[in-house]
Amino acid sequence: MAPDERRKANKLGPTAVAVPTSYPSLLVTAGFDDAVATDVTAEYRATQQRWIDATERQRPGIVAAIGEPEYADRVLRRRGTLDAIDAGLLARFLYTARR
Questions:
Q1: What is the pLDDT of residues 32-88, one digit of tens each?
Q2: Between the N and C ends of the chain, which has fewer C-beta atoms within 10 Å?
Q3: Residue 8 has pLDDT above 90, yes or no
Q4: 96 pLDDT tier (thresholds 50, 70, 90)
Q5: Number of H helices and number of E strands within the chain?
Q6: Is residue 38 helix, strand or coil?
Q7: 7, part of any domain
Q8: How far is Cα 96 from Cα 32, in angstroms, rounded to an integer?
Q9: b/e sequence 35-47, b meaning 16+ C-beta within 10 Å
Q10: Angstrom distance (rounded) from CA 27 to CA 47
């Protein structure tokens, strides 16, 4: 991934998950082996879409609670996340390993 793509992915993805190495490497360093990665990106994307859909349905109440600027920012961020998933910049994996 190019540096500008990595920056975009880090900005639009979940917070506190960017690491300087791979997750399998982290598992090995922590003493785990037989790591298996399961791609759950499709489920991650579906969850993001459901969040947007629910947020739009509940817009009046959410805006009343957090204000229009914060509401708009949250929706914009989730839409950016969807775009990044669709562009292949973001993925979600579930890791299992043995120790």
A1: 999 999 999 999 999 999 999 999 999 999 999 999 999 999 999 999 999 999 999
A2: C
A3: no
A4: very high
A5: 5, 2
A6: strand
A7: yes
A8: 9
A9: eeeeeeeeebbee
A10: 26
